[in-house]
Amino acid sequence: MNGISHVAIGVRDMERSLKFYRDLLGLEVRYDQMQPIGAMASLYANPQKGQRRAAHLHYGHGESRGFLVLTEMPGGTTGEAIKLDQVGISHFSWWVDDIRAIYEKLKSAGVKILVPPYETEASGYGESSGRKYLTCLFEDPDGIMVQLDQRAG
Question: Of the residues 11, 22, 25, 115, which has the maximum number of CB atoms within 10 A of its CB?
Fold first, then answer.
C-alpha cells in the first residue's frame, strides 16, 4: 500500500460541514452532488433512500494529495461520533505547516477544542526518540475528532 486514498464521513448537515472543512480548514471542494448508492445499498442503515449527497474535499500536493468524502442522506444521517476508546475509526489527522495559526482560527470560530497544541515525542509517530511534534485535537460539527500534527524543527 502507498497511502490512504480518502476517508469518508457521514454528516448530519452538509452545509454546516462544508463551512467547517472548506472554510475553516481550507479543503478544496472538487465534487458535490447527489449520487445513487447502487450496489452499496446493503451497506447503508437506510438503503431505501436510494441516493446520497457526496462532496469530495481535496487537500495536499503531489504524492501527498488525498481527499475527504462527506456524505449526507436525504432526510438526515443518523448516529453519534465515537470516542477514542470505542470500536471504529475514532479520529483522523492531517500534517500541517502552522498548527498554531489553524488552532487560533478554529478557536476564534467557536470550534470545540479538545486538546490545544502541545509538544510530544516522535516515538509516538513511529520515529526515533529525540524529534518533537506539535499536535492538537478538536471536534467537527458532528462531534468527530480531528487531529492536526506538525513536525517541530
Answer: 11
Distance, in Å, from the CA atom of 31 to the CA atom of 57, rounded to the nearest integer, reads 7
CATH number at residue 105: 3.10.180.10
> 134 lies in a domain?
yes
Q: What is the pLDDT of residues 77-115, one digit of tens each?
A: 788 999 989 999 999 999 999 999 999 999 999 999 999
Place of cell 465534487: 31
CB neighbours of residue 65 within 10 Å:
11
Q: Which residue has the cell 475553516?
A: 24
CA–CA gap between residue 46 and residue 108 (Å, rounded): 37
The answer to whether 152 touches 132, Cβ cutoff 8 Å, is: yes
Q: Residue 30: phi, psi to the nearest 5?
A: -115, -10
Same structural domain for residues 68 and 95? no
Same structural domain, 57 and 95: no
